[in-house]
From TrEMBL:
<dbReference type="Pfam" id="PF00314">
    <property type="entry name" value="Thaumatin"/>
</dbReference>
<feature type="disulfide bond">
    <location>
        <begin position="98"/>
        <end position="107"/>
    </location>
</feature>
<feature type="disulfide bond">
    <location>
        <begin position="108"/>
        <end position="118"/>
    </location>
</feature>
<dbReference type="InterPro" id="IPR037176">
    <property type="entry name" value="Osmotin/thaumatin-like_sf"/>
</dbReference>
<protein>
    <recommendedName>
        <fullName>Thaumatin-like protein</fullName>
    </recommendedName>
</protein>
<feature type="disulfide bond">
    <location>
        <begin position="79"/>
        <end position="94"/>
    </location>
</feature>
<feature type="disulfide bond">
    <location>
        <begin position="71"/>
        <end position="131"/>
    </location>
</feature>
<feature type="disulfide bond">
    <location>
        <begin position="17"/>
        <end position="23"/>
    </location>
</feature>
<keyword id="KW-1015">Disulfide bond</keyword>
<feature type="disulfide bond">
    <location>
        <begin position="66"/>
        <end position="148"/>
    </location>
</feature>
<dbReference type="InterPro" id="IPR001938">
    <property type="entry name" value="Thaumatin"/>
</dbReference>
């Protein structure tokens, strides 16, 4: 996601795509709030993810009575100091614990790479408390993954 991109096309303070205006299939540089969707013939799967950190609030509303997902709270304002990304004297993003500390525990890998062993950390709990419908860690499926049968999606950056 682009935020505070200024006059340089594609050069952003967070969510940057290597200086390019378009990511061309690559993800933006974390930390970045993500909308993820898999469109299938019979059912779509979608979510807002903070697993790669947070840089801006967003919401997704869907037609056909399907579930709303999003993170509309400004997590940059409650981001723990050790996760903050600063630019121009202000917080422009909040790293995930995985990005900040790169441990198997925080990244849900190695011995912690399964739903049974990967559990929420104190940092992912901060994200989840502020944004209950968004993914806060890798296996946060039960409260975060939504489904819809051929909905129309409206993504809003708040």
């Amino acid at each position: 996601m682009f935020i505070a991109c200024g006059k340089e096309k594609g050069r952003c303070e967070s969510g940057d795509c290597g200086g390019s205006l378009y990511c061309e299939g690559r993800g933006g540089q974390p930390p970045a709030s993500l909308f993820e969707i898999t469109v299938a013939a019979d059912q779509d799967y979608y979510d807002v993810s903070l697993v790669d950190g947070y840089n801006l609030p967003m919401s997704v509303s869907v037609s056909r009575g399907c579930r709303w997902v999003g993170c509309v709270k400004d997590l940059n304002s409650i981001c723990p100091g050790e996760l903050r990304v600063w630019s121009g004297g202000r917080v422009v993003g909040c790293k995930s614990a995985c990005m900040a500390f790169n441990t198997d525990w925080d990244c849900c890998r190695g011995a912690f790479g399964s739903p049974d062993t990967c559990k929420p950390t104190r940092y992912s709990r901060i994200f989840k408390g502020a944004c209950p419908s968004a993914y806060s860690y890798a296996y946060d499926d039960k409260s975060s993954l939504a489904t819809c049968n051929r909905g129309d999606y409206v993504l809003t950056f708040c």
